[in-house]
Write a structure and sequence with these properties.
mainly alpha; globular
């Protein structure tokens, strides 16, 4: 599957170039996922259960709204 492939800088750039041709709504969905990953990489602890929900929604293309994401992350910002 594509997600098992080694992602070189060139492959990432190719994907991002394609994203620019997507509809704005699809770009926003991807941006939400990226923001979630960036937050995770920043050291905030999201539970395994929360990641399971995020991943399931991403597969269904049923992602959290900005408000839902903010609500989850706000719990960790003050910790």
């Amino acid at each position: 599957m594509w997600y098992n492939a080694v992602m070189t800088r060139e492959k990432v750039k190719e994907i991002l170039d394609r994203v620019l041709s997507w509809a704005p709504a699809d770009q926003e969905k991807l941006a939400r996922i990226v923001r979630e990953i960036e937050q995770r990489r920043a050291g905030d602890e999201i539970t395994d259960e929360e990641w399971k929900i995020i991943e399931e929604r991403a597969v269904r293309r049923d992602l959290a709204t900005d408000e839902e994401v903010e609500q989850v992350f706000s719990r960790y910002r003050s910790a």
